[in-house]
Amino acid sequence: MQRSQYDIRKICKIHKKMKYERTYIENISYHLPDKVVTSDEIENILTPAYKRFKIPKGQLYLWTGIKERRIWDTNYSMGEASFEAAKKSFKESNVSPDDIGMVIYSGVCRDYLEPAIASYVANKLKINENAQLFDITNACLGVLNSIIQVANAIETKQIKAGLIVASESSRHIINQTIAKLLEENDIEVFKKSIATLTGGSGAISLILTDESIASKKRKLKGYALQNACIHNNLCVWGPKQGLLGETISDINTDSVNVMKYGITLAKKTFEQFKTKLKTNEEKIDKIICHQVGSVHQKKVLEALNINAKKDFVTFEKLGNIGTVSLPITAKIAEESGFLKNGDSVAFFGIGSGLNCIMMGIDW
Q: Mean pLDDT over all residues of the chain?
């Protein structure tokens, strides 16, 4: 009974302060498809639509800053992609599957409705039988939400380590959008489909640990979050007839208002972030944002008054890979030497819903 009361008090304290004391991001790994699809290739397929709408070639890159993206082979499993990323995490760290007390799959794309994709990955990795296994989805913020869940469990001493995996695939939605645009004769439909054509594919794995087994790198400081759920209808993707319907709709995105209200939400969240973590624009050395495109990046940085030199991007070569964009970008930024030991780093995520999470890490 005493332990239960302690946990409840501790959890309430964490949620109120949104700050952490003993949690580290031990490892980030990623797994990418081999197949590359360029924006030029997509536009070549869309030549009849471009002629119909009198759109010159090259506009997709000019609008988004995305030259290419990766695509998985047909029917490649999201669970398998996550497993491949997780194998790298264990290989690159001193943590073993026996240390893991929680596994969360946090991608939007799924192989099936049940069981949890986390169960598939845990079985492949031979995770110990006492670990909690479940899935979380929240548009492009699933990984950041999962980090909060695992960190809360570590801070309350429920677990010593947790594994987060996620995979995304854009093959289906890009093919469906291309087919739709070749049939449609409405420029408004074209405008609302641009965001879909930026999609990429990839998988990630993160291991979070308690300080007692951590390598003492990438200390999680805390987070801030806000929602503007009044705008939940601005970006919608899913079955037209409900979860069990046979007809799958493509993404319907009001890009202009997603950016407009998303930036408003980001500014509000950033003010909370600076207060909670006692920081400011000058004290933040580097930032890693969810990867949408060039216009979005420029507008967000301007709104938050952050120097673009502090930002690292991957959207030009990888596109927007949903939940896995931010962690993949962070890992590549570390591999390239952009993120260095001792940097004060901020993760900025804005997703459909609308939701925003900003997270601080001492790299």
A: 91
- Count helices and strands in the chain by DSSP H and E runs: 14, 13
Say which DSSP state 259 is in.
H
Based on the residue annotation, tell me whether 140 is a catalytic residue of this protein: yes
pLDDT single digits (tens) 118-171: 999 999 999 999 999 999 999 999 999 999 999 999 999 999 999 999 999 999
Q: Cα–Cα distances in Å, from 280 out to 76, 271, 311, 350?
A: 43, 9, 15, 19
Output the pTM of the full model: 0.92
Exposed/middle/buried for residue 272 (C-beta within 10 Å: 0-12, 13-18, 19+): middle
Active-site residue identified among 43, 68, 84, 140 = 140
- DSSP string computed for 89-141: HHHHSS--GGG--EEEE--S--S-SSS-HHHHHHHHHT--TTSEEEE--BTBT
Annotate 296-353 with DSSP letters as a single string: HHHHHHHHHT--GGGB---HHHH-B-GGGHHHHHHHHHHHTTSS-TT-EEEEEEEETT
Beta strand 23-31 with 202-210 is antiparallel
114 catalytic residue (yes or no): yes
Tokens describing residue 205 = 């794995």
